[in-house]
C-alpha cells in the first residue's frame, strides 16, 4: 500500500500543474489589445479628426481671403482708374469695396481662430499619439515576455506530467480512487497539512488521537471538519 506522503506528492504536482494551466489561461486572455489601448486609440483618432477638420477649415478660409483680397485689389484699381465718373456709380463702387473689406476682415478673424484651433489640436493629437505609442510599446513588450513565459511553462508542464505519471504509478488502486474522490469533492485539494495540532485547510484544532495517527505515514487520518486526508507538515 502507498503512503500518505505519496498521495501528498501527487497533490503537490497536481496543484503545480493547475497553477501553470491557470497562468497559461491568463496569458491567453492578454493576447488581445487592452481596453486602455482601445480607449487611447479612440482618443487619438478623435483628436486627429478635429485636427484634420481645422486644417481643412483654415485652408478653405485662406483661399476665401486670397480671393477677397484679389477682388478688393481689382475693385480699387477700377475705382482709381478714372474710368467711372458718375457720382452714383462711384458711390456704389466705394460701397462694394467697403463690403469686400468687411467680409475680408471677418474671414481673416476666422482664419486666426482656425490657426489657433489647429495649433491646439496639433498639440493634443501629438500628445495622444505619444500616449498610444507608449501603451502599444508596453503591450508589445508584454506579448514578447508572455511568449517566452508560455514556452517555459510548457516545458515545465511536460516535466510535471512525466513526474505525475511516476508518482501516480506508485499509488495503490485504492489510493488512486481515494485521491480522485477527495479531489472532486474538496475543491481540488484532497489532502490538508496537520501543523501544531491544527488542520491547515479549515483551521480547526484536531483531536489528540488524530494528531498522533497523522504521524504514522501508513495510516489514513481525516480531518473531522473538512474531511480531507491529513498529512504531517
**Largest pleated sheet:** 3 strands, mixed
| Approximate strand percentage | under 5%
Shape: rod-shaped
For the record, the CATH class of the largest domain is Mainly Alpha
CATH architecture of the largest domain: Orthogonal Bundle
What share of residues is helical?
over 70%
Q: Tell me the number of helical segments per DSSP (H or I, 4 or more residues long).
A: 5
CATH topology of the largest domain: Helix Hairpins
Mean pLDDT across the residues is 95
Distance between the termini: 21 Å
How many discrete domains? 2
Secondary structure class reads mainly alpha
Question: Assembly type of the shown chains?
Answer: single chain
DSSP summary, beta strand count: 3
- Uncertain stretches of 5 or more adjacent residues: none
Give the H and E element order: HHHHEEHE
- Which strand order spans the largest sheet, edge to edge or round the barrel? 2-1-3
Radius of gyration: 41 Å
Amino acid at each position: 500500500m502507498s503512503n500518505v506522503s505519496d498521495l501528498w506528492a501527487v497533490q503537490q504536482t497536481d496543484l503545480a500543474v493547475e497553477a501553470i494551466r491557470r497562468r497559461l489561461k491568463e496569458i491567453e486572455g492578454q493576447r488581445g489589445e487592452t481596453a486602455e489601448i482601445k480607449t487611447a486609440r479612440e482618443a487619438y483618432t478623435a483628436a486627429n479628426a478635429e485636427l484634420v477638420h481645422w486644417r481643412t477649415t483654415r485652408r478653405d478660409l485662406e483661399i476665401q481671403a486670397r480671393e477677397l483680397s484679389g477682388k478688393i485689389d481689382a475693385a480699387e484699381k477700377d475705382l482709381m482708374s478714372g474710368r467711372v465718373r458718375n457720382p452714383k456709380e462711384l458711390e456704389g463702387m466705394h460701397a462694394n469695396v467697403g463690403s469686400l473689406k468687411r467680409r475680408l476682415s471677418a474671414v481673416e478673424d476666422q482664419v486666426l481662430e482656425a490657426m489657433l484651433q489647429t495649433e491646439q489640436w496639433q498639440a493634443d493629437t501629438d500628445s495622444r499619439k505619444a500616449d498610444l505609442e507608449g501603451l502599444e510599446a508596453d503591450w508589445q513588450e508584454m506579448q514578447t515576455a508572455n511568449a517566452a513565459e508560455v514556452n517555459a511553462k510548457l516545458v515545465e508542464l511536460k516535466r510535471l506530467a512525466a513526474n505525475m505519471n511516476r508518482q501516480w504509478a506508485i499509488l495503490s488502486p485504492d489510493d488512486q480512487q481515494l485521491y480522485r474522490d477527495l479531489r472532486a469533492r474538496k475543491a481540488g485539494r484532497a489532502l490538508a497539512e496537520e501543523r501544531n495540532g491544527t488542520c491547515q485547510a479549515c483551521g480547526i484544532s484536531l483531536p489528540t488521537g488524530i494528531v498522533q495517527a497523522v504521524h504514522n505515514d501508513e495510516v489514513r487520518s481525516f480531518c473531522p471538519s473538512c474531511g480531507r486526508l491529513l498529512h504531517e507538515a
